[in-house]
Specification:
The protein is mainly beta and about 300 residues long. Helices cover about 10% and strands about 25% of the residues. It contains 3 helices and 20 strands. The chain is elongated, with a radius of gyration of 20 Å. This is Biotin-dependent carboxyltransferase family protein.
Length: about 300
């Protein structure tokens, strides 16, 4: 048995393996998946010398704890949280050396929702359709972590530009989502667009990797007929029968039968991944595509 691996001591509420996603298979009904906060996962990989697409751990709210079988450099980014090695405080947002057999504890998020844990060499689980990502909707990729599970690690780069720390945006106190008109915008009344632009929305506790659900004014439909299933994209704002918008995230279904009132700018979706339940939310209608923010 290889010692280039780590054992899961505490899996947390939901911790899964993610990379940059499973692209190019939507026509087969396979979602893209991948890290919800791509800038945070890329930064974690940069800090330990990995390429941007190396597989990392994505934790949800309560963090996780792991024990590497050999010494490894790690970095924790995304939602700020306490980090410790064998009970001793360690840095968040910077490279940390974890000795063989020591326990790396990634604590509960202080702000935000999802933290990212990169290991030098990346997590070397078997790729499925070109990605190591866990997909909660289709079940592709490795299962979410469980206590006692053992995951393999890859070989770290011998030489890389070392970074002690790097700036990164914090989780939003208020989530602002810029939204282009959707393909079914004409299915909604002018009152619906007024509600979107001025209504008081909050992030629902029912949100997950599939979609960010909202609490707030219901959107009034102008067309009440049935809609045949049609293709869905990351960031699509779908409106189910209760009228409350749902913003599709990385594990979203590739087709859907509810009308899409708009599509959130890709540059704003990382912040959506870090918006905790109860976070105030504003939709800002725009008419032109928004340039995607580059990861640090």
């Amino acid at each position: 048995m290889t010692d280039r691996a780590f054992c899961v001591v505490r899996a947390g509420a939901l911790t899964c393996v993610q990379d940059e996603g499973r692209h190019g298979h939507a026509h087969l009904g396979v979602p893209r998946s991948g890290a919800l906060d791509l800038p945070a996962s890329r930064l974690a990989n940069r800090l330990v010398g990995n390429p941007p697409g190396a597989a990392v751990l994505e934790t949800t709210l309560t963090g996780c704890a792991v024990r590497p079988r050999r010494a490894v450099t790690v970095a924790v980014t995304g939602a700020p949280c306490p980090v410790s090695v064998d009970g001793r405080p360690a840095a968040w947002g910077a490279p940390v050396r974890v000795p063989a057999g020591a326990v790396l504890e990634v604590g509960a998020a202080v702000l935000g929702v999802r933290s990212y844990v990169a290991f030098a060499g990346g997590i070397a689980v078997e790729p499925v359709l070109g990605s190591r990502s866990t997909d909660l909707l289709s079940g592709l990729g490795p299962a979410p972590l469980t206590d006692g599970a053992v995951l393999p690690l890859g070989h770290p780069a011998e030489h890389y530009a070392r970074v002690d720390a790097a700036p990164a945006p914090g989780p939003p106190r208020e989530l602002v989502l810029r939204m282009l008109p959707g393909p079914r915008a004409d299915w909604f009344t002018q009152n619906a667009f007024a509600a979107l632009a001025t209504g008081r929305y909050r992030v629902s506790a029912a949100s997950n990797r599939i979609g960010l659900r909202t609490e707030g004014p219901a959107l009034e439909r102008a067309v009440h007929g049935e809609l045949p299933s049609e293709g869905m994209v990351w960031g699509a704002v779908q409106v189910p029968p209760d009228g409350r918008p749902v913003v599709f995230l990385a594990d979203h279904p590739t087709t859907g039968g509810y009308p899409v009132v708009g599509v959130v700018a890709g540059a704003d979706l990382a912040a959506a991944a870090q918006a905790a339940p109860g976070t105030p939310l504003r939709f800002v209608p725009v008419r032109h595509a928004v340039r995607t923010r580059q990861a640090p």
